[in-house]
Amino acid sequence: MAGRPFILVVGARPNFMKIAPLYREMERRGLPLLLLHTGQHYDEKMSKVFFEDLGMPEPDVYLGIGSGSHAVQTARIMTEFDQVCDEHEPRGVVVVGDVNSTIACALVASKRWIPVAHVEAGLRSGDWSMPEEVNRILTDRLSDLLLTPSSDGNENLKLEGIGGEKVHLVGNIMIDTLLEHLESARKTGIVERLGLQRGEYGLITLHRPSNVDEENTLKPLIELLIELSSSLPLVFPIHPRTRARAEAFGVLSRLEQAENITLAPPLGSLEFQEMVGDGKVVLTDSGGLQEETTALGIACLTLRENTERPITVTEGTNTIVGSDPAVIRRAFSEIMDGGGREGKIPALWDGKTAQRIADILEKHMVEK
Ligand code: UD1
After folding, report:
1. DSSP string for residues in 89-138
2. What's the CA-to-centroid distance between 1 and ligand 1, angstroms?
3. Is any atom of ligand 1 closer than 6 Å to the C-beta of 46?
4. How many of the other CB atoms lie within 10 Å of CB of 326?
5. Domain boundaries 6-171+349-365, CATH class
6. Which of the residues 99, 119, 132, 263 has an alpha carbon 20 to 30 A from that of 11?
7. Structural domain boundaries in the chain
8. Does any ligand 1 atom lie closer than 6 A to the CB of residue 13?
């Protein structure tokens, strides 16, 4: 089908697995699409590997924005995306999640009267100090279609006066990706390559500025991880931001020398999914990982003071432990003693979210 395209925006690592199933579903329906990558994440391991693992084509448009302060990064994306809208006159723009690319493209489109759909709308941590919270709230204000992953999202939006026709509960699109790759993610061999035994290791991810940017927070966290690794081998695929901060604070070598911690580069999505699915526990400050562990039934300790994904706590396997070593230590011991939380899979986390979203986009984003 020719005509004015839908632009699907990706920018940073967590976006790729949210757009991949939607891209595929919309392509299957013959809808005109333009896949746009802002280049917020650009390293091979932060970006290219994901396109390959998830079976996504090369982006039609690559903006090559790169790193920078929030203002610089957002402004650069806006300037470039404005020109893309000039050239392609999209019928609608689809943004996902809460990264700088999300708000930047939503803002440009909305001021040009191009309809915006936000996938993963309505999530709120209540913590304005997180850049993602600012991005979420503003993107939702600007969006014409708000596609929520769980009913708490609808409630949050209602409290902010956003409701009615614009809001649709569609389920969690990351679970589409997770379920689709369940088989292939069992066969990457990464667990053995890292010298680990299935079910007998913990997986760490840390990259939030609130955990890694301050020496006084990062150093004690690293010491705690080294301590915990004496009772369970730990694997740490380290984010470039965290590696850079650890090096600057002189603690990267502590991690490198720790006998029971395996430092790894950022992993591809299939390898990572296998690591999560075969782990005993995940320690993380990521958003998406709180959901993936709930979907896979793996214990998760979230090293943050709050979560925008409360359903992973009320229904799933997630426990919020903050950054206090005593609290983390206690929760970790409970899991080691077999006291992890039983969880269930939330409603509409069923692998069919992309279909529901495509139905809504087809109906509401028509060519004018
Ligand atoms: C971004 C998102 C965050 C998301 C995370 C996933 C925002 C505000 N933050 O945080 O919500 O959870 O992605 O990873 O959008 N870098 C590289 N190579 C890359 C990309 C980044 O080395 O390919 C380094 C650069 O030094 C850069 C730093 O990582 O300055 C931070 O990257 P940036 O995209 O600004 O934020 P993230 O911390 O990755």
Report:
1. --SEEEEETTSHHHHHHHHHHHHTT--EEEETTT---S-TTSHHHHHHHH
2. 36
3. yes
4. 9
5. alpha beta
6. 263
7. 6-171+349-365, 183-336
8. yes
Residue whose structure tokens are 């390293």? 43
**Which residue among the candidates 118, 207, 239, 364 is catalytic per the annotation?**
207
Would you call 174 exposed, middle or buried from its count of C-beta atoms within 10 A (0-12, 13-18, 19+)? buried
Superfamily of domain 183-336: Glycogen Phosphorylase B; (3.40.50.2000)
37 sits in which H/E element: strand 33-37
Confidence of residue 180 (pLDDT cuts 50, 70, 90): very high
CA dist., res. 115 & res. 257, Å (int)? 52
Helix (H) or strand (E) holding 264: strand 261-264
Residue 93 near residue 106, CB atoms below 8 Å: yes
- Hey, whose CA ends up nearest to atom 22 of ligand 1? 240
> Per residue in 231-266, pLDDT tens?
999 999 999 999 999 999 999 999 999 999 999 999
Atom 6 in ligand 1: which residue has the minimum CA distance? 13
Q: Is the pLDDT of residue 1 over 70?
A: no
Closest residue by CA, ligand 1 atom 16: 240
For strands 33-37 and 61-62, give the pairing.
Answer: parallel
CA atoms within 13 A on the CB side of 193: 11
Give CA–CA dist 134/313, Å, rounded.
Answer: 23
Q: Determine the atom of ligand 1 nearest the C-alpha atom of 68.
A: 30
Tell which atom from ligand 1 comes closest to the C-alpha of 209.
Answer: 38
The answer on pLDDT for 368 being more than 90 is no
